[in-house]
Amino acid sequence: MIQMIKCVVWDLDDTLWEGTLREDEAGVKLLPEIAAVIDTLDQRGILHSIASRNSWEQVKNKLEQLGIAHFFLYPQCHFDSKAASMERIAKELNIGLDTLAFVDNDPFERFEVNYYVPQVHTYAAHQYRELPEYPEFQVVQATEETASRRQYMQARQMREEARKAHKGSREQFLKECRMKLQIRTARQEDYLRVVELSHRTNQMNSLLERIDLPFVESYCNQDSHYLYVAKLEDRFGAHGLIGTCFATVTEDRIDIKLFCISCRIEGRGIASAFLYTVLERLGQQVPQADAVRCLLVRKQRNLPARLLLEMLGFKKTITEDEQSTYMLPLPLPRMAFDWLEIGE
Amino acid sequence: MNRDAIEQEIVDLIKEMLNLPFVDADTVLVGNTGVLDSMTIVRLLAEIEHRFEFTLDEDDLTLDSISNVKRLTEWVIKSRQASH
């Protein structure tokens, strides 16, 4: 399967624009149609960032003047290597290096990135018009969520900055974020986003499985099959639909078939709160159930999914090939998430 | 690098990653009063691998082995010896 690009990192001089900013600020102009390319990718939920050796002050002014400053997250303008910039961007956005695209006119820079961070996809500057045509830049189907991704990531960036500036305890900080987690069964309008989440998640995808729309539709039409979703908002804005969980119930057991949780909500215990609440609600539907079962594909890339199950008290019972069975006896252990407001 | 130096570096890392003013050997990392969620643990471990230049054996990783700073330090030392 092709790894989808989640963020394009642009060099500036003679890549994003013609000319050299430091030498001829007034003469610098955007390459033809490049703004349209950026916008098209943005509409698809693909983020943009920058790796350049220009000074940030000067770059910021120029981008504002060109009317495209709002597109770029975590821009890297410094004299460190661009390979280091790739690592920083991936870390800040909490996405894999293999989901980054790097566009630069200088073959040396591309070679260096290929050498130190071979997972990053590199493109020569002249290819910019074709980027939206390449398979790795295609999205399953754009959802409302897709087009708002940049705003969600900007809210996340604001939250990160507030976190760095906060002096109190962690719990106090989380409380001050005023997070509201809405957990409910999925409606028709959520289905596309559920499909998209399954394609975009790795760290928190229990089976590393990609599903399609007909699967979701037929799943929701079956008895005893539940599809839950979670939406998050906080004082920095909405974060959109960030989690989904497929479950089935029988008289004596709840089965988690698949869960996928976005990694942009890392660091606030949202994933635990989501799965716990889903199990609590399903437990009320089948009070006689005495256990929860969850299958997990054990691979390095979804280690967080495994740790999440263990944090909730699941224990591994059987492992066959790469798949393990995890069990949790009911009733659920008591857990409180008092830094969060959980609603329906 | 001796044990105390490794522990101190881990303490500093957690402080920096989570912007926590007070972290010491007894700080609980995982669980109801823990400061890390599962994605942050993995990010912390990746950073530790990078700083101490070794590869963790994830099969060997249990929540118990990283439940507080002291245990995490022991686990890092053990994994580091196994990897070298």
TrEMBL record, chain B:
A Pfam cross-reference name: PP-binding
Which InterPro entries does this entry report, sorted A to Z? ACP-like_sf, PP-bd_ACP
* Native organism: Paenibacillus profundus
- The record places domain Carrier at 1-80
Q: What is this protein called?
A: Phosphopantetheine-binding protein
Which Gene3D superfamilies does this one have? ACP-like
Checking PROSITE patterns in the record gives: CARRIER
